[in-house]
Amino acid sequence: MASLKDIKLKIVGIKKTAQITKAMNMVAAAKLRGAQQRMEDFRPYAEKFSGVMGELAGAGINPDAFPLMAARPVKKVMLILVTSDRGLCGSFNANITKVAENFLKTQQEEGREGCLACVGKKGNAFFKRGPFEILHSSVGIMDNIQMFNARQVGQEVINLFLEEKVDEVQLVYGRFINVAVQRPTMNRILPISTEGLEEAEGGGAEGPKATYTYEPDPEEILNQLLPMFVNVQIMHAMLETGASEQAARMTAMDNATRACEDMIDDLTMVFNKARQSAITAELMDIVGGAEALK
Amino acid sequence: MANKILLEVVTPSKLLVSEEVELATAPGADGVFGAMANHAPLLATLKIGEMHYLNEGNTVRMALSGGFCDVSNNRMTVLAESAEISTEIDAERALRAKERAERRLQEAETRKEEIDLARAQAALARALTRIQIAGH
């Protein structure tokens, strides 16, 4: 059995770990509030944007006339993988990368090439050694997510798509459902489809539909809007992942703190037993000694 | 109430303005336009420039850097990449941005790089708009 001193040291060590995990839990909780706020702030913009896109889609435009909307035979698929920059948040990043890996493997089996654009350090680290090519990576930006970060990624991806280096772009990110649940989610962002938009617009339509005046013409407006739409979606994914990361870390650190407490309880029990048996042994010695003197 | 239009200015970081106004003007791609109550439905793209709105005798001016605008059902929604109300503009920062943009513009012109040139021009236009609006 370990000596009393060893056990004591172990208990002290675990107590310190518990302190750290508890502090990290609280920091994550505070950051989660900030991240959720930013998500809320972004929502009106995203919603209005989809509304306007839906309006345009209803204006009877021909999707094949727009390079960003035109579907073509898919030879190479790109996956934009949005993960966090930092670890210690449970299986959050592993879950996202798993979805990405499965998807890319299926694509490969079906004879399509796969490649990646990584936003966030963790996804980049996972795929760095292959087998899939990383064409773009933005790391170290998840702490302070800005629109221009999303714009940068969007620009890169759009260029690759227009140069026909990739034929389809999917976006995978950690969707924030609530504090306890974050779900890896995948959306296709290129070529852009207007199906979901029309639905959203149909639900929100109120009163008789008036004919719009377009300035300049609808095609011109759509040409400007489509790239922005890609950016908005990437931005949205980044904000969701940011909030999910903090929520996942909160849960992970809470579990860690609880595990520490359990270990401390167990070790305290062992410590007390060891102390008891030491005392008993000493008593036996004393009694034995006294007996011998008689 | 009846003769006002609901103006909403939304940027990626927040809902900047949500107010009933008498008149709002915006820098459309085909020229500045204004919208008052019961304006016909309109969808327009916006340039970098100044937008302002009038409410109960007060005029509020804003620097806008591109975006688009949707007018329908007595509601005008401006989706801007960024927007700042005149009192919130950091004039010094804008001035620095202007100098930086001018320098870049020269560099790009000598190297004949079209992308850099366009970027520098946009940056310069943004900075100039900010300075102009902050100055009032």
Number of separate structural domains of chain A: 1
Helix content of chain A: 55-70%
Major β-sheet profile of chain A: 5 strands, mixed
**Strand arrangement in the largest pleated sheet of chain A:** 3-2-1-4-5
What best-fitting shape of chain B do the alpha-carbon axes yield?
elongated
Largest interface, C-beta within 8 A: A-B, 29 and 25 residues
Output the CATH class name of chain A.
Alpha Beta
- Computed over alpha carbons, the radius of gyration of chain A is 28 Å
Description:
The complex is a heterodimer of chains A (294) and B (136). Chain A has one domain: 3-Layer(aba) Sandwich (Pyruvate Kinase, Chain: A, domain 1), CATH 3.40.1380. In chain A, helix 3 links the parallel strand 2 (113-119) and strand 3 (133-138). The longest helix of chain A has 76 residues, at 218-293. Chain A has six helices and six strands. Residues 199-208 of chain A have low confidence and may be disordered. The two termini of chain A are 34 Å apart. With 294 residues, chain A is α/β, with parallel strands linked by helices. Chain B has 136 residues and is of the alpha+beta class. Chain B folds into two domains: 5-86, F0F1 ATP synthase delta/epsilon subunit, N-terminal (ATP Synthase, domain 1, Sandwich); 90-134, Single alpha-helices involved in coiled-coils or other helix-helix interfaces. Chain B is 31% helix and 46% strand. Chain B has helices spanning 91-111, 114-134; strands at residues 5-10, 15-21, 23-28, 31-35, 42-55, 58-72, 75-80, 83-85. In chain B, helix 1 (91-111) runs antiparallel to helix 2. The longest helix of chain B has 21 residues, at 91-111. The radius of gyration of chain B is 16 Å and the shape is elongated. Chain B starts with a strand and ends with a helix. The relative contact order of chain B is 0.17. The chains are: A alpha/beta (294), B alpha+beta (136). Chain A binds chain B through residues 38, 41-42, 44-45, 48-49, 51-52, 55-56, 147, 206-207, 210-216, 218, 220-221, 224-225, 228, 232, 235, and chain B through 8, 10-15, 28-30, 33, 40-45, 68, 70, 72-73, 77, 79, 81-82.
